[in-house]
Amino acid sequence: MNTQVQRRGIAGNAARALGVVLALALLTALVMDQRPWDRLLATDSGVGIVIQGQRFQLPAEESAVIEHRAARHADRGAAEAGDAAARLVAAELDDLFERLSGRLPAYADWYFSLRGEYTRLSLLILRWGGLATADPVVDKAVELILGGEELAGEVSAIEGRVEGLLAARASELRTAWLQELLLMAGEPRPASEPGTPSAVVLLDDLAKEFAGHGSSEFLTRLSASSAGAASAGAAGPLAARLALRSSAAAAGGGSLALKGAGRGAAKAGSAGAGALGCAAAGPAAWACALAVGGAAWLATDWALLSADEWRNRDALIADWEARLALLRAELEETLLEHYDEAIAAWHRGMRLEVERSFSPLDSVRGAPPRRSI
Amino acid sequence: MALNDMLWLLTVPVFLIVLSRVGVLLPDTAVAVLVLGLALFMTAGIWLRLVLRRRIFLAGALRAESPWYRRLRGGPLMALVALGGAIPLAAILVVAMARVDAPHLLLGMVLNVPVLVLLREFWSRRLASHAVPRFRAMLALRLALALNLGLLFLALAVAALFRTYPELSGLTLAEAMLSEAGRQEATSGLLQALMQLAAAKDAMAWWLGQQVLPGVIDPGLQVAGWMVLVATDLLVVWSYLLICASVLTVLHWRAWHPGGHRE
User: What is the total count of domains within chain A?
Assistant: First the structure.
């Protein structure tokens, strides 16, 4: 009996001694290794989010939703900004080219007038003589239809309005994202309040990126690209562009030139016939011939111009309408290409910033670390 | 019995380790309740040691039949006095645990558990042929606590010599204290204020250690100087040992209580 009690006592002591040793070992490990505590406390305290000097704390799964929504905001914001820019550019160019089209009748009036005829003739003579280099018809067209340098100013104004629209869009995007974020994050925690969140996400850089001032420098890029578009694509050598327009326009120009040559032959014939009638005038025959011939030339010229206008005015206007339509399309394409590039870079910047900002959460979610950006 | 004591005593470092991890997250109310609870628990051990001291005095000074023996034997008033001393000690321990940033203090507390029990057993056996039986257990505990305090403080002071401290040499004393105080964060405003005071005290010690002690060439004097500077940690160690003593006291209350009358 006593032996049994002694054995039980020895076994109990051995178990207690083992318990003490194990407890000491476990406690030593717990003291020396911080990681189990980090994991334990991180589960309770969730993820920290810091923005605009305020700290929020929320469960890790909600942070995933916030990241997803930030990415969605970036996608939607960039797409909407592109659409808005395209709509505004189209509306602005519609308005501009409607006004330009309204000037075509005035150009046609000049083109089929005696003044226009002789201005063209004199400038062509000067050009043949090497005294003028530009195409006088195109120069006059640029002056009458495009208003000289006025178009460059108009395009710059359009660019300014599009830049303003995109800057406002970026600001609205940031505001909308922030509102949704703050709604999800709830009440901020005081800065003095401690916490050991498993990860802390700093979102100030992402807010700057949304607003267009982040690493992608959307607004700066936008301004720089617009300036490039204005000088290189839109308000540059418009005259040359207009002169070298489509084949349809060239064909129209060729037929008008042929008709001009025909008019010259008819005028010479009528002037010669009028001068012949002055033979009876004696000594004043030369003066009479000059006066009658000149008058006949001008009358014939006016009559032929009128006939030409009656036959070709609509074709001329249609030809220039086609040229303007092509110019408009090219201008729109150039502008949108630049804006699309800037918006695409902004979108890439936002997505990269979303990924970078939320990368500290990878370890919390058990995901493999992302590639560094 | 010694193994049982060790197992029970291990609950103290477990509690302190948890406190060191979650202390800064506790609100004001929890901190106040924690300090008061620890102080009440400490009071059990302190009160019994005061009673022992009083009984030893009364046993030598008064007759057992004297009414003053009963009146002076120690009661609620003595408990209140003990509580008055225990509250600041409990607060010091809570603050120290909330601020602990190196494992050496907690490790010392864990490894000290068997040391304290073995020291108490040692003194209990040594006093067997010398002490009055009804005072022997508490006397052994007192001696074990005193010796353990010295050993633990020495171990921690030596460990403190090998720690790295913030570089404060370019700062004035006030800047150093403010800088350290500003780094303290806690949910509880009360705990944060206490932590800032403790941090300022530590910064003062470190600053003096960095500004004054390098001029002392003798290594022995340097060690002595550091021990003086970390002497305030003695209170932390003493608070810890008082809680351990209270655990043992509560476990063996009936056996260790000196009783109402002399044997």
Answer: 1
